[in-house]
Amino acid sequence: MNRTRLIFIGILALAMGAVASILAFRLLQSRAVAAQSEGEDVVVAAGDIARWPNNLFGETMRIEHWSNAVEQGAAAAKRLLAGPGEAVDFAPVPYFWSDQYDAKIQFLGRCCPTDEVRIVDGSVEERRFVALFGRDGRLFGALAFNRPRLLMAYRKLLSAKTSFDDAIAHAQAS
Q1: Strand-pair partners of 100
Q2: CA 44, CA 83: separation in Å to the nearest integer?
């Protein structure tokens, strides 16, 4: 059974005291959302401030988007209710979207400036396309610009650590 010694909740906390703000930030930045260590205190955090190791992408990440905060909240609750040794890693495929006037922009996964980028549907000129991001031979991200239905098929491919070539082949077959 987990024993809780401290609960810190900040919902739309904009004007916290300076000391509390610094302490909370350092605490949450130093521990993962779904961390589990036998024999030591565990910190569970969720929301924009939380950082965690995402083993699906091999990096520690922090994401500021409400959909991520919702997923983290569910994962944090599961972690708090799990018995010793029963917690599972929090390793989602990051997702965000934004509506900008007449454009619906959506992204799954992670990208970096050195990724190979391939337009697999539509075109930039049409302002309707899907682009895939590959790194080290693996699919790391998918961007949709006014193509919301086409994007979601790539979430499963990202979860499966699909190769970049296989993701391109999937796009060409669709």
Answers
A1: 103
A2: 14
Instruction: Tell me how far apart the alpha carbons of residues 24 and 163 are, in angstroms, rounded to a whole number.
Output: 39
Domains and CATH numbers, the chain: 18-81 (no CATH), 95-173 (3.30.390.30)
Beta-carbon count within 10 A of 123 CB: 10
Residues constituting the chain: 174
Give pLDDT tens digits for 64-114.
Answer: 888 888 888 888 888 888 776 777 888 999 999 999 999 999 999 999 999
Sign of CA dihedral 58, 59, 62, 63: negative
CA distance 157 to 26: 35
| Percent of the chain predicted with pLDDT > 90 | 48
Q: What is the pTM of this model?
A: 0.78
